[in-house]
Design brief:
CATH topology of the largest domain: Heat Shock Protein 90
CATH class of the largest domain: Alpha Beta
Mean pLDDT: 78
Strand content: 5-15%
CATH architecture of the largest domain: 2-Layer Sandwich
Number of helices: 16
Radius of gyration: 49 Å
Number of domains: 3
Number of strands: 9
Structural class: alpha+beta
């Protein structure tokens, strides 16, 4: 019982899909009553005794058209081929099928099947009463006008609504993506600020730590002074540790390295760096008591601003790492101007053992693990690369290759704060661009072409019907001159050869009319071309044959 109840519930949901809101209920009820009453009225006018069944069936099919559009179309077309009452329903069902059947193959198959069923039903009903060509033409023209044209309009409306919904969803998606891009741009800017904090403040704190370390081992200082210097050095180390924790938090909240902005070295203002600032970095390290050599090789070429800034940051980070991990070791800084790129190299040997400092008295270097990652990203953004690793003498070497023009894997950031917002807006992806984008066509084009084809087909059928009607009428008409020239007693074969082929569509109502034919004879009926004085009556020409001879001919008036 549960299985039957579930199957019944599923069938009802399929045939009558919801949700049934009050407005939809009223609309469907009114439509069912109107179409059912109209179908019953047409059947009453046609003197059919099945008008109650037709009215109720039409109302039921109208209600089922939303859930079963193809099935209702086939049933309605079959009934419409037999009775005229469901023809208004056929237009509604065609519109619903065009709007609700998504697959073109299913839609075309449904309409083809509906046409065949409608034609077959009409042929069975009117068998022998009309020529086959005429029935096919009327059935095709009526089906195109009553069912196919509404289907095209319904499909156009459905596709237009679907296109509008898709465009609205796409617009909402683009707005969300725009907000996401702006958020990512803010995170990248935070990452850039964090990287600059790491490179700049970390370098200065490392110099403070180196200076204080040198003073701490100075024998000319008293114990109290040495203790104060130790406190100063511990404060610098603590500040470095806290700085790196803050930088780590900012880095973790940022997005993965991508097209992050690169700080451009302006020729003035608050910004510092570039190749000119590298000598100042070397002098600062020397002032801290570290032996630092600096050399340049090759013909000096001014690189792009972002390349110079990247070289400055790379040297700054390398000196900071050397001060932290190899205090007291000599450092060499070299710039080589190659034909196609600037090579920056910073190297240092193994750090010497500190003298006068008790074991465990020097804190371990603080490392946040972000330095080399930031350097590699900076070099990548200008199209270069960074190599870092230990040397054979247990020292450390860092080398970077930077192209002069800075053609890299990411765009340079705006140099001024006011340009940041423009950069965020330009970062929105262009979805519709690209040479492979397919041209979108309006649904109105296909529906308009289909409607034009239907109208042209109906017009062609109308012209063909007029021509066929005139030809059939001529085939069923005998001119008065021909009638007068045929004499009784003429062999049947000669008479038949002179008469038209005839057409029962025009003469079937006159068979058996007129004077009583000779006994045992067979008669052929034609319309007469002589219509003078006919009024509301048609002139009929009758030829009766017996034993292969024309035994009688009659010309009389018969009511139509």
């Amino acid at each position: 019982m549960d299985a039957i109840a579930k199957a019944w519930s599923r069938a009802v949901r399929t045939a009558l899909p919801g949700p049934w809101r009050p407005g939809l209920v009223v609309r469907e009820a009114v439509g069912a009553l109107v179409l059912g009453g109209l179908a019953a009225l047409i059947e009453v006018v046609s003197r059919s005794c099945l008008w109650p069944v037709t009215g109720l069936g039409t109302a039921a099919l109208f209600l089922l058209r939303r859930g079963l559009p193809s099935t209702v179309l086939l049933v309605t077309a079959t009934v419409a081929g037999w009775a005229a009452g469901p023809l208004p329903l056929l237009a509604c069902v065609g519109w619903s099928a065009g709007a609700r059947v998504k697959r073109v193959s299913v839609l075309a198959g449904s309409f083809a099947g509906a046409f065949l069923l409608m034609t077959a039903t009409g042929a069975v009903k009117d068998a022998g009463e009309a020529p086959v060509k005429l029935m096919l033409g009327l059935s095709l023209g009526g089906f195109l006008l009553v069912a196919v044209l509404p289907a095209l309009w319904g499909r156009y409306r459905a596709q237009r609504r679907a296109l509008s919904d898709a465009l609205r969803e796409r617009n909402e998606q683009l707005l969300r993506e725009h907000a996401m891009v702006a958020h990512q741009a803010r995170l990248r800017e935070r990452h850039r600020i964090a990287q600059d904090m790491h490179d700049s403040l970390g370098h200065q704190l490392a110099l403070i730590s180196v200076h204080s370390g040198a003073l701490e081992v100075d024998r000319t200082l008293s114990d109290r002074q040495r203790e104060a210097v130790g406190v100063l050095r511990l404060a610098a180390v603590t500040a470095m540790r806290e700085l790196r924790e803050v930088v780590g938090v900012l880095h973790d909240e940022s997005t993965a390295p991508g097209p992050a902005p690169v700080a451009a070295a302006a020729g003035g203002g608050a910004r510092t760096g570039g190749l000119e600032g590298i000598e100042k970095l070397v002098e600062s390290s020397r002032a801290a008591g570290t032996t630092v050599s600096f050399g340049e090789d090759g013909e000096r070429r001014p690189p792009a601003a972002n390349v110079g800034q990247a070289a400055y940051r790379i040297v700054q980070e390398a000196l900071t790492n050397a001060h932290k991990h190899a205090p007291g070791a000599p450092i060499s800084v070299a710039l080589r101007y190659e034909p196609d790129a600037l090579v920056v190299e910073v190297a240092n040997p193994r750090a010497p053992e500190p003298a006068g400092v008790p074991a465990g008295g020097r804190p371990a270097p603080v490392s946040g693990g972000q330095g080399l990652t930031g350097l590699r990203e900076r070099a990548r953004l200008v199209g270069g690369m960074v190599h870092a690793g230990p040397t054979a003498e247990a020292g450390f070497r860092l080398a970077a290759v930077l192209p002069y023009e800075g053609a890299g894997g990411g765009p340079a950031a705006p140099g001024a704060a006011g340009e940041g917002e423009a950069w965020v807006l330009d970062a929105v992806p262009v979805v519709d661009g690209g040479p492979d984008r397919r041209r979108r066509r309006s649904p109105a084009i296909g529906c308009a072409v289909g409607g034009a084809v239907v109208l042209l087909t109906v017009l062609g059928l109308l012209v063909w019907g007029v021509v066929a009607f005139i030809g059939a009428a001529n085939e069923a008409t005998v001119e008065r001159s021909l009638y007068d020239s045929i004499q009784e007693g003429t062999p049947e074969a000669d008479v038949v050869s002179r008469l038209p082929v005839g057409n029962g569509f025009f003469t079937k109502d006159y068979e058996g009319s007129g004077p009583t034919p000779p006994e045992g004879s067979s008669c052929r009926y034609f319309l007469s071309g002589d219509t003078s004085g006919a009024g509301r009556e048609d002139a009929v020409a009758r030829f009766c044959f017996k034993d292969g001879v024309l035994v009688e001919k009659q010309h009389y008036l018969g009511r139509f």
